[in-house]
Recover the amino acids of this structure.
């Protein structure tokens, strides 16, 4: 039995691919099939601090290869996308913010961005279905949106996910898709199931009528083969457990498809297994290390060797701990990708480097 992403059902990549060796890889990437052919809505979630927004931005750049047009949507109102791409704060409208990754066949396409907020989405919804833009604006000024989302929290999520679903379904006058792909920088992992399960969330609010119909339309997109949910994590116990819990939750909901596990900020320690374990156990020949440092012309080689040995031991222990966390991630049996740790301010060049990594590992 074959899954929609081309892997045998229930089976992803065997182990996370590693970041390709060499300098910062901004080389042109060849066009090829990806793990997510046919997917048009990429929902990106992750525990706070794992770099969820950064990965969403890099994924948008990677998907915009070959001249494709991609929309990047933020739903938490933090203006994280604007900060990431170093552009002015984004309004509730689609703005071009970057050019995607190039390939041998084509230049990069356009990446657009949108900050979706429930108040603006409600006004747009009232105008679209009832021609009530002015009434919607007046209601917003009266604080009706805050009242409505307090008594019916699911309404907020329906409006936000609805914006992404509308962008996925939108076509021009010639019946061509407006966007080749949509990337949603979604809420954290702990809230992702409830956020996406909008039909259930509005069941108490509206069992029939336009709101219910709108929620059902959104769910058709979210639960279709065109949508996957990617999980961003780092190789630490809490984020890894939240990732596994989030994947398990989506599977219990039925129809909402888990996507890839994107392991961010990796810093591999390239030592053979025996040497790695020896270093973690402080089994390091400091005298030999001191001789090497002295031969290199460094003074106080003995003290420097002791400091380096201690640092190597700490790094080796961390690396072994990360290997255990990777083994835990492998139990989810989802395609898995590694992104490198980048020092300092990532900047646009760093985003392209991450996008290139995603393309090389067939995540986009």
């Amino acid at each position: 039995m074959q899954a929609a992403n081309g892997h045998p059902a229930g089976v992803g990549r065997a182990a996370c691919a590693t970041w390709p060796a060499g300098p910062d890889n901004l080389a042109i990437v060849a066009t090829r099939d990806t793990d997510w052919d046919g997917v048009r809505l990429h929902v990106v979630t992750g525990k706070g601090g794992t770099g969820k927004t950064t990965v969403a931005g890099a994924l948008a750049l990677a998907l915009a290869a070959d001249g494709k047009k991609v929309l990047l949507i933020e739903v938490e109102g933090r203006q994280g996308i604007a900060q990431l791409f170093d552009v002015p704060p984004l309004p509730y409208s689609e703005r071009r913010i970057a050019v995607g990754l190039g390939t041998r066949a084509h230049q990069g396409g356009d990446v657009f961005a949108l900050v979706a907020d429930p108040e603006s989405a409600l006004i747009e919804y009232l105008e679209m279905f009832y021609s009530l833009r002015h009434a919607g604006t007046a209601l917003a000024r009266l604080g009706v949106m805050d009242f409505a989302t307090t008594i019916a929290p699911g309404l907020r999520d329906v409006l936000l996910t609805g914006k992404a679903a509308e962008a996925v379904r939108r076509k021009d006058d010639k019946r061509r898709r407006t966007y080749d792909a949509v990337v949603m920088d979604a809420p954290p992992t702990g809230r992702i199931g409830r956020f996406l399960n909008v039909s259930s969330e509005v069941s108490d609010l509206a069992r029939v009528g336009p709101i219910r119909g709108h929620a059902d339309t959104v769910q058709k997109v979210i639960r279709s083969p065109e949508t996957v949910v990617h999980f961003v994590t780092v190789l630490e116990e809490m984020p890894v457990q939240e990732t596994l819990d989030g994947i398990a939750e989506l599977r219990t909901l039925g129809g909402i498809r888990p996507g890839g596990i994107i392991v961010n900020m990796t810093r591999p320690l390239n030592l053979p297994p025996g040497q790695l374990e020896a270093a973690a156990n402080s089994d390091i020949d400091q005298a030999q290390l001191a001789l090497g440092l002295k031969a290199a012309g460094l003074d106080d080689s003995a003290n420097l060797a002791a400091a380096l040995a201690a640092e190597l031991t700490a790094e080796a222990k961390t690396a072994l701990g990360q290997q255990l966390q990777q083994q835990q991630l492998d139990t989810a049996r989802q395609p898995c990708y590694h992104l490198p740790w980048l020092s300092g301010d990532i900047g646009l060049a760093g985003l392209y480097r991450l996008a290139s990594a995603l393309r090389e590992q067939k995540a986009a």
